[in-house]
Amino acid sequence: MTRDRVDLCVVGAGSAGLTAAAAAARLGARVVLIERGRMGGDCLNYGCVPSKALLAAAARAAHGGNRLGVEIAQPAVDFSTVHAHVQAAIAAIAPHDSRERFQALGVEVLEAQARFTAPDRLKVSQIAEGTSPVLREIRARRFLLACGSQPLVPPIPGLAGTPYLTNETIFDLEELPEHLLILGGGPVGCELGQAFRRLGARVTLLQGRRLLPGEDEDAVLPLRQALQEEGVIVHEHSRVSRVEWSGAGIRLTSEDGKVVAGSHLLVAAGRQPSVAELGLEAAGIAHDTRGIRVDRRLRTSNRRVFAAGDVVSDASLGAGLRFTPVAGQQAALAFANALLRWPARFDVRTVPRVTYCDPEIARVGLSEAEARNSGRSFRVFTSPFAQNDRAVTEGDTRGFVKVIADRRGRILGCVIVGRGAGDLLHPWCLALAKGMNAGEMARLLLPYPTRGEAGKRAAGQYYERLLTGWRKALLRRLVRLG
User: Fold this and answer.
1) Is residue 399 part of a domain?
2) CA of 248: how far to CAs of 129, 162, 251, 315, 435, in Å?
3) 401: which DSSP letter?
4) Are the C-beta atoms of 411 and 428 separated by less than 8 Å?
5) What pLDDT sits at residue 481?
6) pTM attached to this predicted model
7) Which of 286, 296, 297, 290 is nearest to 274 (CA)?
């Protein structure tokens, strides 16, 4: 067995692991990066990249019909070409996350399974093609666990014996499903449900609660309407109790007696941290079913081991917010704490999130429901796209901009529903991070006509308080004196 001593050992080559490994290597640290699967992790191979490529193809397929006086023939979908487009998108981005790129940066990349054997070391079984496993022991000054997460498969009777898809396998389909059943109405279920419906498949979605339970109901309403208008059959508050599979297809039975049948099943019931095979007990690392426990500096109960991304268990540090930018930022902060000894801390308040359906739902900071549950005083300013000139000219006025602010106008959160909501969220991310107030956003000079003006209009409602009570009387007096 060979033994190595390094400055930083990173386990996991997804968004978090790659960020930390690159930063450490550029500063001259000796870095080992261990990945048992594909470089790039979930985002490149099974998540952000393939799903957005599929959504782009689906958006083009949805342009048939007569809109704004332009007659467009119903598109013909060649699903094998759609599949090729998805794979090409992955291949185009893959070099940025590749083993070759990171080796060029000075990172040693091992394709192996890692397992702790002591608080300061782990053992890897490296397998090269055509050879027997090579055992190595890695000792490191600091470790970063960035192992990501995997699809959660609920213990529903009959599911284990049924062929089902997850986000890790659905993009391998080369033929369009005849009737796709989706178990779960979160972002993955909604995005892929709308995409496959637009591409020509029949789609039935079952959700144990309502769609997107983490978002305000008024934000979900336009999306629910869009899905139903496009032909997605949506069953909310319908918990599946049994799964059956035969040569005729797959059948789901819900607790309320509802029965639906289809040709394919996508399980999109959430994710769980990938920590089972790490030997965390041997390293003295506290963890539970939600993941690895860390402090605000992303440090585990073992002071030489840090964790970032989907494996983090504390909700106040982003657990459940399994997004690429969260993983990347946490990894950067963990690296700064681990090797640079900078007391950097992760701020969950500024985490943005987008569900990339049509219409999009984007949010940063508190939702209205979260603000209400916090017990703090707040105000809500809303501007519908029906009152936005650009949205009117485009013939798509679905959605709104909602700004949540405290009594002094300091921005606590922003929710945007509508076309391009994710891009429209950018200035609100900055406003929240910098502690800006609604008045500052209302005074921004913006180009006309743009959808961004809806946000300015919402923020401008902050000044309406000046037109009430003693403030209004004062302003009237100033006008007379002027």
Assistant:
1) yes
2) 40, 13, 9, 43, 58
3) E
4) yes
5) 76
6) 0.92
7) 290
**Residues β-bridged to residue 261:** 251
**8 Å CB contact between 22 and 135:** no
For tokens 């999130």, the residue is 353
Task: Note the pLDDT of residue 308.
Answer: 94
Give the CATH number, domain containing residue 321: 3.50.50.60
DSSP string, 192-238: HHHHHHHTT-EEEEE-SSSSSTTS-HHHHHHHHHHHHHTT-EEE-S-
Percentage of the chain with pLDDT > 90? 79
Residue 319 in any domain: the answer is: yes
Taking only the tens place, the pLDDT of each residue in 365-396 is 999 999 999 988 999 999 999 999 999 999 99
Kindly state whether residues 344 and 239 are assigned to the same domain.
Answer: no
411 by Cβ neighbours in 10 Å (0-12 / 13-18 / 19+) ranks as: buried
Based on the fold, state whether residues 10 and 142 are members of the same structural domain: yes
Q: For residue 94, how many C-alpha atoms fall within 13 Å in the half-sphere facing its CB? A: 14
Residue 405 amino acid letter: A
Q: What is the DSSP string of 66-135?
A: EETTEEEPPPPP-HHHHHHHHHHHHHHHGGGG-HHHHHHTTEEEEEEEEEEEETTEEEEEE--TTS--EE
Cis-peptide, bond into residue 449, ω within 30° of zero: yes
Phi, psi dihedral angles at 396 (to 5 degrees): -140, 90
Q: Which of helix, strand or coil describes residue 364?
A: strand
On whether the CB atoms of residues 86 and 92 are closer than 8 A, the answer is no
| DSSP states of 310-341 | GGB--GGGTTT---HHHHHHHHHHHHIIIII-
Alpha-carbon gap, residue 184 to 163, rounded angstroms: 17
Please, are residues 31 and 4 in contact by the beta-carbon 8 Å criterion?
A: no
Coil, helix or strand for 380?
Answer: strand
179 in Cβ contact with 375 (< 8 Å):
no
φ/ψ of residue 176, rounded to 5: -70, 130
60, two tokens: 């083009």
- Kindly state the average pLDDT of the residues 247-254: 93
Residue 134 has pLDDT above 70, yes or no: no
Phi, psi of 332 (to 5 degrees): -60, -40
Q: What is the rounded CA–CA span in Å between residue 212 and residue 356? A: 12
Please tell me the total count of domains within the chain: 3
